[in-house]
Amino acid sequence: MTIDTVTPDATHLAYKNTESLSTTFKNPTSFKLLYFPIHSNGATSREILTIAQAEWKNLVPKDWEKEKEKTPFNVLPVLFVSSPTNKDVVLAEAGVIEQYLANQFDLMGNNEYEMNLIKSFHSSAASLHSLHATTVAFIPDREARKKAMEAFRDGPFTQWVAIHDKHLKDNGSNGHYIGNKLTLADIRTSNLIEHLLLQTGGERLAGIIEMSSSLRRLRTEVAHDPRVEKWRSSRAYKTLTDATGQYFSDPFAPAPKL
Q1: CB-based contacts of 166, cutoff 8 Å, min separation 6
Q2: What InterPro entries does UniProt report for this protein, alphabetically (predicted)?
Q3: What residues does CATH 3.40.30.10 cover in the chain?
């Protein structure tokens, strides 16, 4: 992974020559992922690109307030996909990017049914991430944020853990949602857990996770996958981890820089 602050203009999506652009998506040679210098909604895509040993650059905005207008929806992440015939073809929205990359690198199961189950588990993890962001993470007042975290823990988080514990047990509590190999669903849930534990008050969620032997097993299986382990032990990953903890301790302070 290399880091760059030069952001291609993605203001407009392409609507012509879509067959050629589709070929680029099917046969990419390199990628650029634009996201803030923290984990959050960039973590899963970065992890997939790294463990797949793809050729990719990690782009970070230099001045987001000025650059946001150059993205399709004024939000990140944005993925730029290149091939010999097209450069920097744009894909937006975290969930779409993650599913595209997972499909590209054989992380979407063995058939149509497994693929859609994986999408379901992926969507559930992403929804909980979004719920935490909207109801807890960006509350300005620290005391109010603390109370919101307690409500999140005792309500939707505890319920989510129980539901996912059930599904993981249905697959044999082997650390995977589908079969016995790593998929997007495993990676997304693992990154959700790591993200939430980095939040202020995240230690209050750790006990709930510990009560689920199946989620503990998933977390261990993903972390001990040799490809994931290599990435998460890298300096780049640890720098992102430190920046994530710093940012979410006070989301209204100046953003961290790599």
Answers
A1: none
A2: Glutathione-S-Trfase_C-like, Glutathione-S-Trfase_C_sf, Glutathione_S-Trfase_N, GST_C, GST_superfamily, Thioredoxin-like_sf
A3: 2-104
Domain 112-249: which topology? Answer: Glutathione S-transferase Yfyf (Class Pi); Chain A, domain 2 (1.20.1050)
25's tokens: 């998506």
H/E run at residue 240: helix 235-249
How many residues are recorded in the chain? 258
Tokens 């993200």 map to which residue? 195
Distances 99 to 45, 160, 187, 195, 227 between C-alpha atoms, Å: 9, 21, 11, 19, 19
Per-residue pLDDT of 183-222, as tens digits, reads 999 999 999 999 999 998 999 899 999 999 999 999 999 9
Round to whole Å and give the CA distance between 129 and 42: 12
At 256 the pLDDT is 53
Q: What is the CATH number of domain 2-104?
A: 3.40.30.10
